[in-house]
Amino acid sequence: MSMAGNLRKVTSLGRVGGLRKVARLTRRRDRVDLSHPARSPLGSAVVNCVAYQDGARVPGGRDLVDTVERIRKHDEGFVWLGLHEPTQKEFAGIAELFDLHPLAVEDSVDAHQRPKVERYGDTLFAVFKTVCYVEHKELTATSEVVNTGEIMVFVGRDFVITVRHGMHGSLGPLREELEADANQLAKGPAAVLHAIADHVVDDYLTVTDAVQEDIDQVETDVFAENGARADPGRIYQLKRELLELKRAVVPLGRPVLDLATRPIRVVDPEIQAYFRDVSDHLLRVTEQIAAFDELLNSILQAHLAQVTVSQNEDMRKITAWAAVIAVPTMVCGVYGMNFDNMPELHWRFGYPIVIGVISIACLVLYRGFRRNGWL
User: Fold this and answer.
1) DSSP 8-class letter at 158
2) Residue 5 pLDDT greater than 60, yes or no
3) Strand 56-57 to strand 78-84: parallel, antiparallel, or no bridges (unpaired)?
4) Strand partners, 338
5) Number of Cβ atoms within 10 Å of the Cβ of 10
6) What percentage of the chain reaches a pLDDT higher than 90?
7) DSSP 3-state assignment of 165?
8) Contact between residue 52 and residue 78 where contact means Cβ atoms under 8 Å apart
9) How far apart are CA 346 and CA 83, in angstroms?
10) Whole-model pTM?
11) Other CB atoms within 10 Å distance of the CB of residue 324
12) Tens digit of pLDDT for each residue in 50-59?
């Protein structure tokens, strides 16, 4: 029985005795490659389970429990187990086999955790927020820009357990890249932890570059000729999505810095140098997000100022036309009072003179307002 097939049985049990019973079961179906699907095609939460020694895969055919015991007995190699959105019941047997802390297990099953790194005895528990950019033809006030997920990583002396939540952030390609670099993979579970952290932070860089294009487009629209008519909802939507990205990136700064600088039992000092590079990249992303936030604030303020200026221009035009119209209104109002003893009522040229005076007065006012930019 292969480890991946046996592990699907393990996740349904909660005691080591039951695990050993499962380890002796024979498998009747063909082997299924579980490296890339989001969930196992057989319906289990197990995505993949592979043992490594000296940076190379250990040939399959052994059950999980015996493989773990053999690795621990000879004190060489480690097991990398990948899960996708396991239930508490599915995770119970695994937690007991690897002696995982109940609080960390609860966090890994429930998800929606803040990025962090915690130590439980000889086991390191890390939480990473994964992000991906949601493609869209046109940014609107309701467009989803950033989608988030989570990767929880348990790192022990001889095992790595990854628990992934969300439909993106597959670790299959990352596993293949590590297997192609046997020297790096031979450095143990800490090398896998670094690869995951580096993979997650690289995704942050990709997403921030894509978000910058959206911000540039909004900025261009706002400062266009009719920028005052641009939809401010797009700016607010970008700020909301940027806040989602900020929640994923900023809290991770201190944990990654601790991995790079503080002595940790399961992290070799040689691997800590690699974490310093991850920390530098994460700092760059954090600075970009802060700059984006300030830029969006400036764009929003500029848009509001444009709206105010546009409203003031409209009010000036309305006021100018009201002043022009007031002249004939006033004259017509005087001559419309119908008094019998009013002068100029019986003049032969009274009507054309009044019309001429009204026209000249309106023209003078119009030219004056036009010269001053009111019309």
Assistant:
1) S
2) no
3) unpaired
4) none
5) 27
6) 22
7) strand
8) yes
9) 102
10) 0.74
11) 19
12) 888 888 888 7
